[in-house]
Amino acid sequence: MAKKKILFCNYSLHSGGIEKSLVTLLSLFDYTRYDVDLQLFANDGLFLPRVPEKVHLLPPLFPQVYKRNIREALPALLKQGQWKTAFCRARVTLAGLHGTMGERLGKMWKAERRAVRRNPNVYDAAVAYMEGQPIYYCVDFVKAKRKIGFIHGDYTAMGLYRAFDAPYFQKLDAVCTVSESCREALIANFPQMREKFHVQYNLLSPPLLRGMAEETPDFGDDFSGLRVLSIARLSEQKGLDLAMPAVAALRRAGLSFRWYIIGVGPEEAALRAQAESLGISKDVVFLGERANPYPYLRACDVYLQPSRFEGKSIAVDEAMALCKPILLTDFSTAKDQIENEKTGLIVPMTPEGIEHGLSRLLQDKALRERLQETLSRCDLSNTEEIEKLYALLEGPAAGVPARGQKG
Length: 407
Description:
- The protein folds into 2 domains: about 5-60 and about 115-205 and about 385-395, Glycogen Phosphorylase B (Rossmann fold, 3-Layer(aba) Sandwich), CATH 3.40.50; about 210-375, Glycogen Phosphorylase B (Rossmann fold, 3-Layer(aba) Sandwich).
- About 40% of the residues lie in helices and about 15% in strands.
- It has helices spanning about 15-30, 70-80, 85-95, 100-110, 135-140, 160-170, 180-190, 205-210, 240-250, 270-275, 295-300, 315-320, 335, 350-365, 365-375, 385-395; strands at about 5-10, 35-40, 55, 120-130, 145-150, 175, 195-200, 225-230, 255-260, 285-290, 300-305, 325-330, 345.
- The strands form 2 sheets. Strands 3-2-1-4-5-6-7 form a 7-stranded parallel sheet, with helices on both faces. A 6-stranded parallel sheet has the order 10-9-8-11-12-13, with helices on both faces.
């Protein structure tokens, strides 16, 4: 039987949960059944080297300089004679200045769709693995018998743009999301499309994680006390700014610990300045990107995720798999991941709530051990989840043509 041809589309492979989830999925994919192309807007990111050799990485939709700061990107593109792309980059910068996340994504796509090329191939299925531009691109510029989109969070909490997304969702055969709560959010926004919405959990292989965690971590210091770890993009969504006052209050109270943060993002300078202003710059250690964060996760005493909103956090799943005591804020999907007081603690989304929960975990060794013991009895492996995606890939074609493609 001939292999089916599948296209995956994402923006890039930077060090985020969506990108990590995609490379994990591709590492477990059945290449005896499928030939896979991967289309990125930018062929860069920490996870790019982890793309399996059997995946055909297509040329990026934009040149590498496009992703740089506008002050660098614009003159570089003009110097290369890429006037159309330079104009697009300028419009994207302006589009990103105002509005909700969804409104900005919509305006950015109106600019970018003028500069991207149409995919020349015909696929059995196309999978847009991220909200926003990957979905818009697959609908507008890819020919495929089936089209599947992914929303990796609570649609309402993310501030996505229902009026702009609705016509795109209509042209998708299925929309996958990562938890039951996230599916309910999609249904609340698009009740007429409820049958299109499916839960596709992020794939997790605890034995693989434990193997990768055996390396020795380099924390960059000789600290021997309790370690708190967060793995997150340094953005407003992740709520790291909410945890800073909590850490400062606990240090003033005399608790000895350090908070390590793995990740990069637009809020790094602001977070460093906040730590400095609170007098905790030596207590908060920014580790930057780490290709393998699991040794750090294995070595920490508490995992902290103070997010304002999440879909189903991969980092939290991984902390559970490595049996780490977990502290979450009460974002809308927190209860989809841990059971409060049994597999972790869920606290109010305030500095005071984080302070109270972190104080408990740092000072109560018996509580940490009880949470670890409970987690050690949980079977978190779910590699069979991939079969649900295969079923969607194999489903009947909806017969909806891409824009510019005759039906």
